[in-house]
Amino acid sequence: MPRTILSRFASAALVAVAAAPAFVMTACATADSGVANPNAGLLDPASDTPGLSVGDHAPMGELLDAESNEIRVADLYSDQPAVLIFYRGGWCPYCTRDLREWEGALPEFENAGARVVAISLETPEHAYDTTTKNELSYDVLVDPTGNVVKGFRLGFQLDETTTTRYKGYGIDLAAHNANASWELPAPAVYVVDTSGVIRYANADWDYTERVGHEDALEAVRGLN
Q1: How many Å apart are CA 91 and CA 68, to the nearest integer?
Q2: By CB neighbour count within 10 A (0-12 exposed, 13-18 middle, 19+ buried), where does 209 fall?
Q3: Closest CA to 151 of 190, 102, 107, 123
Q4: Which domain range does residue 197 map to?
Q5: Do 88 and 95 contact (CB within 8 A), yes or no?
Q6: Cys-Cys crosslink for 56: which of 52, 93, 159, 208, Cβ 3.0 to 4.6 Å?
Q7: Can you tell me the distance from the alpha carbon of 216 to that of 190, in angstroms, rounded to the nearest whole number?
Q8: Residue 12 has pLDDT above 50, yes or no
Q9: What is the pTM of this model?
Q10: 70-94, pLDDT tens digit by residue?
């Protein structure tokens, strides 16, 4: 596990509950802790490395759009390469800032022949809010069961201490997530080719550090 994350875990207990108007940035500035969970596919951030690797096949699964229409993961890359961006939720300013940066790079990916899609555990209603509030023109989809997030080796369950801290900030993941869980994905970016093979992969427990789009764009262009 990265040294920066270990130090953030050690300091998490010292973070005081912020006043309501400032809770979002404070909540997102403190690392999330996870615990090993009997549910298959959930990881432990203290010991597991998140994410599938280049050369792995994208897992099967179903997603929902903002209108709750079902979309198969395989359909995302059946006709063109897909860039899959996994984010924690529209309540996280690090995520929304990152999603807006991907929006700015969208024309480059479209010119390179790729589809850009963002995926989270949010309900379709919250995903719609994320789309509209951040003026996103690419698809923002929902993993209603968490199985797609688990299949990409990104999901973990918050421990009791972190859950209590989030509740103190007014963040209720059980109400926000489509599967009513206290689960989150590690932020990640994948480029998947039309045969379902991952050609670029980046996943990190440290959600305050996000990769730029340049490496993913280079991977997309390398497929042509």
Answers
A1: 20
A2: exposed
A3: 190
A4: 37-158+174-221
A5: yes
A6: 52
A7: 8
A8: no
A9: 0.85
A10: 999 999 999 999 999 999 999 999 9
